[in-house]
Amino acid sequence: MNAALLRTHLESTLDRRFPSPFAYSPAIAPEMISVPSFDRLVGGLPRGSITEICGPESSGRTALLLSVIARIVAKGELCALLDAQDQFDPHSAAAAGIDLTRLLWVRCQQVEQAVRSAEWLLEGGGFGVVAVDLAEVPVHSMRRIPLSVWFRLRGAVSQTRAAFIVLEREPTVGTPASLVVRLKGETTCWSRWPAISGKSALPGIFPKGESRHPSHARLLSYLRSSAEALRSRHRFQPGARASLKAWPAWS
Amino acid sequence: MNFACLYMPDFSLQASLRGEPEAFHQAIALLEGRTVIAATGAARAAGVTFGMTMTQAAQRAAIRRRSRAQENSIHAALLDCARSSSPRVEDTAEDTALVDLQGLEKLFGPPSKIASRFLQQARELDLTVHLAIAANPDTAILAARGFPGTTIIPFGEEARKLGTLPVNILNPHPETLDILHLWGIDLLKELAELPLLPLSERLGQEGVRLQELALGKRFRSLIVSHETEPFEESWELEAPATTLGELDFILASVLNRLSKRLSIRSLAAQELQLRLELAKDPEEQRTAMGKAKSAGTQHKNWGSGHAGDDELQPDSTLVSHLSSHHRYARTLSFPSPVNDACLFFKLWRLRLESDLPRAPVTKIEVVAQPGRRRTIQGGLFTPCLPDPEKLELTLARVAAVVGSGNVGSPQLADTHKPHAFHMARFNPPEDKRPPENKRLAGVTPPLSLREKSTIALRLFRPPVPACVQLSFGHPRRLTSSLVRGKIVAAAGPWLKSGGWWEESWDREEWDIEIRTAQTTALYSLYRDCACNEWYLQGEYD
Fold first, then answer.
1. From B492, which residue of chain A is nearest by alpha-carbon distance?
2. What is B233-286+298-303+323-375+385-401's CATH topology?
3. What pTM was estimated for this model as a whole?
4. What angle do CA B165, B167, B169 make, to 5 degrees?
5. What is the pLDDT of residue B290?
6. C-beta neighbour count of B8 within 10 angstroms
7. Tally of domains within chain A
8. CATH 3.30.70.270 location in chain B
9. How many beta-carbon contacts under 8 Å exist across A and B?
10. Is there a contact between B541 and A88 if contact means CB atoms under 8 Å apart?
């Protein structure tokens, strides 16, 4: 039995005897982010609470985050991205449809700077999404952030309408997070233009055993990943998965 | 009753002691050069007289230096006080302002209420004024200069009210004044009783003018002065400030005054500039540094290089910076005009902490570009945006931690150079319509919002050097500090070059899929054609 199922079992067993710790009454309705499979899986993005999006490289974490930001910005709200490793690419954000004038980008050099800045921005209020990008931070560095910091951040975000999103490799926020989604890269699809039939006109281009599709005629077609909700206080379906697809900007 | 006169007694003294009400009860002498030009009541009681030398005055009272910059500030404050009620203001003298009250009774009520309004605003600006309201400008000026507090002279009673004032208040020519004293005329009522024709025969038109003034019957038009922008407040320090703690108190006081001036004019600051005059004389700085050391201060010190350093630097290091840096000027711009002294102070404090002046400060000057206050009608369905004042403070705090160039809104550069952008100030537009209106207007959402995610590139800054094995010109295996493994798929090359006239680039880009023991990942790889070296420029995610 995995941890999520065990937690569900415990909560369902104990909530009759001790209802208050497990009572969850969202004050603000979750935000549908127009990624249907994600919305179906977790019922939308919760506001006023912490959401963790975790996964390894090329699992579509950043694509999902940019989709969320694009959706919120399109509604006229402001978003803040605290980039702990300075890896954000504004061109990718523009391709995702984000109005960059409504995006505050904080380029940090350390995790502590990002977390402290997030706290100030949440206290100031008025942002629709405050996202902390810790995706490339080593897990052992993430574990050094005291739990009290996340509780403090949860307290701060609960006073606002903001969705506080943490992008990371492994879930480390713990109990303060209301929604934890793990992504996993599944398939990478490359577009293939018609192969050159017969003998190659350019001998030596295709090595033995290789495809006869020239590499410069190839394009990244899409990236498919699967999402699993490890924790959701709004809608939790143990073991449920959703498939997410991300396309390159030129498709 | 159409004119009000605001007069500041002891103008130079008020300018020097502004914001220190208790100082007026102490024995303080004001010097210009080495001569006393003004003194408080306590100092005069102690024997300080005008014209006394500094050595004589120092034995009886504390010494202050006259400050032209502070006099200019207090004069501007006096005009702001006058302009708060009427745009028709005459800048009569540095200590006197005249206001046309025509039509103000409908707005503010009878003259007594107008007077109390002026006095209240003068108090807010730390000004002590005598106020007089009369039917003509000169009578108002004479009454304000002659009587303390508030004087209201009804029409027709000018001569009776002014009668008790001495004739020298008319500021006549010295010879004329001597003649009047010879005649035994000391008060205005005595001058007013003289027959006009003989007076004219003996003193000429000067005599007629003086008698008209004494009778309160001289009418003239107001010379309206035009507003001068921007708003300035300055303060000269008696001794150079060596620590941020020493400067805090004065900076807060200056900003507070500036904010009040803007406030009574119903304006706000669109831009604030802080100008600090730094000590030029190395001797002066050594003295200041010595003072700071002996005081054992725990505050941050100028020239320490960064905000967290409380240690003083050696004098030689500090002095080496002086020749080229005797002024410090920084500007704060606001997305919309704001007027909050507390916010101004916090923003400047954060800026000064991260960007310290390189020498002790001798003068503070704050200049505000005024703008109309922002008025926004909130809507039930419009998204909630951050409070501009609060947002400005938050951004300043964040900038103090991560650096001012690392906070803002990214803007794509108009170039073909890969991934070029620049950071702009975060100033979100306010006229964003709610999506309901867009839908009604038939605006189609962008492609990326139609239930579609876009693959993002996570850039490595700087690019990671990589070692790539090639097979038939195709990358087959990659080794780098971040990742190593077999390349299972590659797309490319795509050639990019440009910028030969400045910072040129010439590269061959590949998209690669690497399979490692744990996972499969997509990267963007390029070969720098100039040096034939491979770099990982980012990761697709």
1. A216
2. Dna Ligase; domain 1 (3.30.1490)
3. 0.71
4. 75
5. 53
6. 25
7. 1
8. 3-155
9. 233
10. no
**Per mean pLDDT, which range of B425-434, B438-447, B521-530 is the poorest?**
B438-447
Contact residues on chain B for A45, CB-CB shorter than 8 A? none
Q: Confirm whether A138 is domain-assigned.
A: yes
CB within 8 A of B216, min separation 6: which ones? B134, B135, B136, B138, B139, B142, B153, B158, B159, B161, B162
User: Which of A78, A90, A188 minimises the CB distance to B520?
Assistant: A188
Question: Taking residues A186-213, what's their average pLDDT?
Answer: 57
Say which CATH architecture domain B3-155 belongs to: 2-Layer Sandwich (3.30)
Two tokens, residue B477: 């295996």
Residue in the block written with tokens 């001058």:
B191
Q: Are A94 and A220 in contact (CB under 8 A)?
A: no
Q: Is the pLDDT of residue A115 over 80?
A: yes
Query: What are φ and ψ of residue B171, in 5° steps?
Result: 55, 50
pLDDT tens by residue, B4-56: 999 999 999 999 998 888 888 899 999 988 899 999 999 999 999 988 999 99
B321, two tokens: 């910076």
Which residues from A are below 8 Å from B470, CB to CB?
A: none
Outline where B404-473 has alpha helix (H).
435-440
Residue A167, token pair as written in the block: 């992008």
CA distance B134 to B154: 7
C-alpha dihedral, B398 to B404 to B407 to B411, nearest 10°: 170
- Residues B466, B534, A94, A118, Cα dihedral to 10°: 30
* CATH number of the CATH domain containing A78: 3.40.50.300
Side chain identity, residue B431: D
| Min distance A229 CA to chain B CA atoms (Å) | 19
State the pLDDT at residue B146: 93
What range defines the domain where residue A150 resides? 30-187+225-246
